[in-house]
Design goal:
Blueprint: H1 3-24, H2 29-42, H3 50-75, H4 81-103, H5 107-127, H6 140-157, H7 162-171, H8 176-202, E1 212-213, E2 216-217, H9 218-238, H10 244-267
Amino acid sequence: MTFDTWWLLYPLLGAVVGFLAGLFGIGGGGLMVPMLTTFFLAQGFPREQVVHMALGTAMAAIVPTSVSSLRAHHARGAVRWDIVRRITLGIFVGTFAGTFIAARMDTVPLALFFACFMAFVASQMLYGVKPKPARELPGRAGMSAAGLFIGAVSALVAIGGGSLSVPFMVWCNVETRHAIGTSAAIGFPLALAGTVGYLVNGWASANAPPLTLGYVYLPALLLVGVVSVFTAPLGAACAHRLPVPILKKAFAVMLILLVLKMLHGVFG
C-alpha cells in the first residue's frame, strides 16, 4: 500500500473505534491493536516492535476517545463520579506499572496474552455472560486494589478497562447503564497513564520507524484519535436505542477474526 492509503485507513479505523467506545463503554483497544498490528506489518515496521507499538498507539488514541465518550455519558447522567474518585489512583498506578511489564515481553508472548484475553472478552459477549449482583462496592482499599488489577491488565492489552470494570461494577450492584458510563470515565486516567508508560518504555527502542515517540506512532494516533472524538458521542447515543446484546455478539465474532489475523501476521 502507498502512504496515501494509510491516510484513508487510519481515519476509518478511528470512526469505528470511536463509535464502539461510546456504544459499549470500551476504549476500543480490542479492535485497534489487531488492526494496527496488521497495518504496521504491512508498512514494514520491525516485527519485534509491532505489537508494542500497536499497544502504545492504541492507548494514546484512547485518550481523546475516552474524553468524548465520558462527556456523552455524563450528559445522560450515567457516570458515578463517586466510583471514579475512589478507583482512579489504583487505575493510574496499575496501568503505568503494566506498561513496564509489557515492554519487557517479547512480541510473540505479548500477542498470545492479548489473543487469550480477547478470546475471554469475546466469549463473554457471545454468550451474554453477566455476573449476578452479589455485593456492595468495597471500601477505598478494595477499590484501589480493583483499580490496580484492572489497570495492569488493561495496559497489557490496551483496552479502556470496560471489559473488566463493567462486570466488576455490575457484580457490586451498580446498575448496568451507570457501569458503562462510569467505565467510560475511568478510561481517561487509564489511557493517560498507559500512554505515558509506553512513551517512557519505548523512548530508547532501536530501529523505531520515523514519526514515532516511544511506542506511539504519531500519524496513526492523530488520524485515529481525531476522528474517534466525533463518533464516540454517536455510539453513546445509540447505546440507549440499539439492540446492544445483538451488536455485542457481532462485535465478538469480528474480534475473534481480527485477533486470528493478527496472530497470523505475527507468527508468519
